[in-house]
Amino acid sequence: MKKLPWIFVLFGLLAAPLGWSQSLTVGAVTGNEAALPIAVVPFAFEGAGLPPDTDISAVIGADLSRSGQFRALGRQDIVEAPARPADVKFATWRLLKQDFLVIGRISDADAGALRIEFELFDVAKQSRLLGLAIGARPNDLRGAAHQIADLIYEKILGVRGAFWTRIAYVTATGVGRDTQYALMVADSDGFNPQTVVRSREPLLSPAWSPDGKRLAYVSFERGNSSIYIQELTTGSRQVVASYRGINGAPAFSPDGSRLALTLSHSGNPEIYVMDIASRRTTQITRHFSIDTEPQWMPDGATLLFTSDRAGKPQIYSVPASGGDATRVSFQGEYNARATIGYQGKTLAMAQGGGNVYRIAVLDRSRGGAGDMRLISPGNLDESPSFAPNGSMILYAAREGKRGVLFAVSADGRVRQRLVLADGDVREPAWGPFRQR
Amino acid sequence: MNNPMRVILSVALIASLAACSKKVKEEAPTPTPEPTKVETPVAVDDGKYDASDLDSDACLRQRVVYFDFDKAEIRGEAQAILACHGKYLVDRPSAAMTLEGHADERGSREYNLGLGERRGNAVSSALQANGGSASQLNVVSYGEERPNCSDSSEECWGKNRRVEIVYTAK
């Protein structure tokens, strides 16, 4: 990663006295009474050395609560700490009105690795739902905790969890021409931020490759907008589009072989699809309006995009091989920057009316134009990005003069702010599932 | 649909600007006394701009054109600026400029890139209507990425919806 962890450490030292704690995360903003109560007991450490710094059960509990589907029992209410199934007294957890209980223990494995065993119980049925062991490196216990949270989420809800994923975003620090931009990647809860690229010119529109190994983004470092694709592990990158005019809004196809993008070399912004291997581009839209922000439907055959061909920006759909565009969004005077939820039945977008911009979710599962619902309360909310399982949406908001990120459950019931202690955070992009 | 509309608009623009540019032409010969004209010994004032006018001429010193929300139509107040810069491009064929298009923070960043470019193109067309040549004009859109003013207020947004004229060759 281009030796950038060093810069990150330096930044950490400078920021630490201000109460910065190696993460973006601030507490939950709203709660959800309908969420399932779950107790995640602190995992017992049974290894030889000192116990690890990472509180695995706290990470699991925070993940589950953030999803809006669960309400993790507060640490102060966890009155017993069973480490093994034989130690569990179900009456205690029934009294605490918990539906589910998670216990676990950490022991030494070979070559300095750790072994984490855990069990998930249904309190009412007094039965074990899950009992697994996973190996983890001591420096990646948060990753292991996210994987355990995913397994618990999937076992109870029947939907794959998306906690063990990463997010990309752009930060801006400083003012005016002294502004420094950075493209960052962090865990889905905002921890472990790492710098992908820094620039003195604007950076925007990060987009993940479906394998999570590359990011496409727009940078102005060449004086005009250009699209780069960068390998995350090596830091090597290539300019894939630097035509006259706008080079913007990259989006990888579901199979990773093509890139949808916006180019304006023809005179105004149009949607194109590039074959990444050959760099050959095919023009998809032909209209004098602004056509931009292409997004792939999961089948790889259809693109959604933003166009003001009807006067104001709205979301349209077009075959990825070209053809006629059809309008998708009908409610709201301004709809832009669509993000596509799991299986494409749900869309989210930035919806504007007057001076207020909020995140709207369009549910098309029942056919027709669909049901549109606002799920954010801000005044300048934008750039929604769905988690790969469709359960949550990241978006950018303004607080005073500063940009912050929020994670909101797809039903809008639970919202959590993720902020950097310093500067402006914007342009979130939720990465794909990772391979276990 | 679009092209006839554009033609009509440009014709209207040319017609309305022709009057302005004449006015500027009449005023241009007397910008300020020129005591330090060392480089041009044959200082016959032919009514043409020269490079020093960029720093001294009241009209040429104005380099920003402002726009209404989500619009790229040039307001009446900007016609004089576009007329004098158009004349400068005519008088100095070696001059070139970049038109930096900007938007306010409302709405999506990529759409605002498109909007900034549309504004830059509108200024480019107006300068060409005033005699500038396409080869002298380069449009770059920064969208909402480079605000002049960072408050979320109507006053600030109005300052940020702009095209900045940046001379790359005088």
Summarize the structure.
The complex is a heterodimer of chains A (436) and B (170). Chain A has 436 residues and is mainly beta. Chain A has helices spanning 5-15, 56-66, 90-95, 141-157, and strands at 25-28, 36-40, 44-45, 70-72, 100-108, 114-122, 127-136, 166-173, 180-187, 194-199, 203-208, 214-219, 226-231, 237-241, 247-252, 258-263, 270-275, 280-283, 291-296, 302-307, 314-319, 326-327, 334-340, 346-353, 356-363, 371-374, 382-386, 392-399, 402-409, 415-418, 424-430.
What value does the Rg of chain A take, in angstroms?
23 Å
How much helix is in the residues of chain B? Answer: 40-55%
User: What fraction strand of chain B?
Assistant: 5-15%
Tally of helical segments of chain A: 4
**SSE order of chain B:** HHEHEHEHE
Radius of gyration of chain B, in Å, reads: 17 Å
Kindly list the characteristics that best describe this protein.
heterodimer, A: 436 residues, mainly beta, six-stranded mixed beta sheet, five-stranded antiparallel beta sheet, 4 helices, disordered N terminus, B: 170 residues, alpha+beta, four-stranded mixed beta sheet, 5 helices, 4 strands, elongated
Structure explained in plain terms:
The complex is a heterodimer of chains A (436) and B (170). Chain A is mostly beta strands and 436 residues long. Chain A contains 4 helices and 31 strands. In chain A, strand 16 (258-263) and strand 17 form a beta hairpin. The longest helix of chain A is centred in the middle third of the chain and has 17 residues, at 141-157. Residues 1-29 of chain A have low confidence and may be disordered. Chain B is an alpha+beta fold. Helices cover 42% and strands 15% of the residues of chain B. Chain B is built from 5 helices and 4 strands; from the N terminus they run ααβαβαβαβ. Chain B has helices spanning 2-27, 53-56, 79-91, 109-129, 154-160; strands at 64-66, 96-102, 137-143, 162-169. Chain B has a 4-stranded mixed beta sheet with strand order 1-4-2-3. In chain B, strand 2 (96-102), helix 4 (109-129) and strand 3 (137-143) form a beta-alpha-beta unit. In chain B, helix 1 (2-27) packs across helix 3 (79-91) and helix 3 (79-91) crosses helix 4. Chain B is elongated. The chains are: A mainly beta (436), B alpha+beta (170). Chain A binds chain B through residues 175, 202, 204-205, 220, 223-225, 245-246, 248-249, 262, 264, 267-269, 288, 290, 292-293, 306, 308, 312-313, 334, 336-337, 350, 352, 355, 357, 379-380, 382-383, 398, 401, 426-427, and chain B through 1-2, 70, 105-111, 113-115, 117-118, 121, 139-143, 145-146, 150-152, 154.
